[in-house]
Amino acid sequence: MTTLLEAKNVAAFYGATKALHGVDLTLEEGSITTLLGANGAGKTTTLRALCGLIRTEGEIRFAGTRIDGRVTEDIVRLGIAHVPEGRGTFVRLTVEENLQLGAMTRRNRAEIAADIERVYEHFPRLKERRKQQAGTLSGGEQQMLAVGRALMLRPRLMLLDEPSFGLAPLVVQELFEILRTVNRESGVSLLLVEQNADLALEAADRAYLIETGRIVMAGSAAELRADEGVRRAYLGY
Amino acid sequence: MELFLNQLLAGLATGGIYAAIALAIVMIYQAIDHLNFAQGEMAMFSTFIAWQLLQWGVPYWATFFLTIAVSFVGGIAIERIVFKPLKNAPVLSHIVVFIALFSVFNSLAGFIWDYSIKSFPSPFGGLHQVGMIAVTLLLLVGLYVFFQYTRIGLAMRAAAANPESARLVGVRVGWMVALGWGMAAAIGAVAGMMIAPVVFLEPNMMLSILLYGFAGAVVGGLTSPGGAVVGGFSVGILENLAGTYVPYVGSELKLTIALVLIVAVLVVKPSGLFGRRAVVRV
Ligand SMILES: Nc1ncnc2c1ncn2[C@@H]1O[C@H](COP(=O)(O)OP(=O)(O)OP(=O)(O)O)[C@@H](O)[C@H]1O
Ligand SMILES: [Mg+2]
Q: pTM of the full predicted structure?
């Protein structure tokens, strides 16, 4: 396996406040990795650091090239799609315009149109609402739209910030099934931040545990699942 | 009846200009959340550039498009040089810079072309009002098509609505803002060149027009380009009809109407007629 993304000793800042204190992270090409942690541990901050939304120190490499210090717009062009916390819906634009925006970095119109159809196959509910203002979608539908928008980039890596947030259990199953399909069939690597640790560890190959801005544990998903401390704190049994 | 129709036509004609200015204001407001007080002065300066080109013997339509191009580039330059470094500065710094821009353009125009009133030609001869309406409508339709049906128009709307999400799909938000400034300056240039044959050219020509433009933007709701257009036309018609039919208003008090309208809308319906609150679920 080849390394797709590697973060070494990454610190991140909100203004003068340091929120990450030297995070190390390695993502393998084609893998699903999950980042677990309590509220305020720094999961969202880690994802924001990786795609240049906040100021960082340390080294981040994606497919061999340094991306730390580069602007988000350029990092996105390398193939990193971010499904942000809160979904980032363009509420006044239509569902289809939201999807089209996901392909903003691409040129080939026929391919883009085909990919929109593919997203509609994954999420038929979006197709029914294609001309509707995206802000009128339900929370779950907006989550699907956010994932669909990220897929429109044809990313090599997707950063997903709590995709299951606010979704009914059945919808969560559906969404994870789609994410697994995308990972398997298109070889898209996933970095998955989840509150639902059980679900995340089931889907993931590797897992990291973050506490107050530091990685405190790393290993295969099975290893973390077997760990006494993780089980008590995050799996609740 | 003929008086009424004449006033209506005049109202539509000047209303179109207010609509264009209102639209320029709304475009910049959506991009940077501030009202560009210098919008009118920028339009005035563009119109002087056109006047100068005409003086040098450049034909009218060549002048027209050349002025639009120069204004477009100038608008982008203003954003890149003056406002980009201010991106995270407090509101007050923005206001100070707007006022500075205002007086720089005003005094620069006075310095270069002096304060005497100059006449500005119309390409439509005696049918200036009709031509003016046609030009504004063409402009508005063109803008609508641009924003609704082109990828870059979509990118600009996305950047204005949600900058962070826009960056996450790769939209270069900074350049979209600059482009918005360029387009606003170009729209202002068209408005200036269309209104100049009516009000004559001088450095203060845009003061009242800017106020009407603001009124149009506020009536339409500062967040709605379509509303700005409707608002601009309504203000123009209202101004002309009130000036003719309401006793005491006459032409001297017409400007007060704009102020009254701004205050009334802000008090009664701050989001304007069309500044619909987006339906949002969180
Ligand atoms: N915009 C901000 N400004 C200042 N501090 C922030 C900001 N966003 C987050 N922080 C701080 O950074 C730390 C990490 O926050 P982060 O949002 O990354 O947590 P999280 O792991 O995603 O939590 P949650 O599970 O609640 O989403 C917290 O202490 C938080 O207070
Ligand atoms: Mg978070």
A: 0.88
User: How do strand A65-66 and strand A17-28 relate by DSSP bridges?
Assistant: unpaired
Q: Determine the atom of ligand 1 nearest the C-alpha atom of A213.
A: 14
Q: Residues 101 to 120 of A: which have CB under 8 A from any B CB?
A: 101-102, 104-105
Give the residue on A whose Cα is nearest the Cα of B281.
A135
Residue A146 CB partners (closer than 8 Å, separation 6+): A83, A84, A87, A88, A89, A163
Directed axis angle between helix B173-199 and helix B151-161, to 10°?
A: 100
Distance of alpha carbon A143 from alpha carbon A163, whole angstroms: 7
**Which tokens is A103 given?**
């392909």
Residues 6+ apart with CB under 8 A from B81: none
> Which of B151, B155, B280 lies at the smallest CB-CB distance from A91?
B280
Q: Could you tell me if the ipTM is greater than 0.90?
A: yes
| List of chain B residues whose C-beta atoms are within 8 Å of the C-beta of residue A136 | 279, 281
Q: What is the DSSP string of B204-243?
A: TTTHHHHHHHHHHHHHH-TT-HHHHHHHHHHHHHHHHHHH
* Cross-strand partners of A35: A193, A208
Rounded CA-CA distance A70/A91 in Å is 28
Q: Which atom of ligand 1 is nearest to the CA of A195?
A: 25
Asked if residue A19 lies in contact with residue A214, where contact means CB atoms within 8 angstroms, the answer is no
Token digits of residue B271: 């989001």
Asked if B133 and B11 touch (Cβ cutoff 8 Å), the reply is: no
Tens of pLDDT, residue by residue over B99-111, are: 999 999 999 999 9
Which residue of chain A comes nearest to B171, CA vs CA? A73
Superfamily of domain A3-235: P-loop containing nucleotide triphosphate hydrolases (3.40.50.300)
Residues 6+ apart with CB under 8 A from A162: A85, A193, A194, A195
Q: Is A215 exposed, middle or buried (0-12, 13-18, 19+ CB in 10 A)?
A: buried
Say yes or no for a CB contact (<8 Å) between B168 and A137.
no
pLDDT tens for B53-82 read 999 999 999 999 999 999 999 999 999 999
| Closest residue CA from atom 29 of ligand 1 | A40
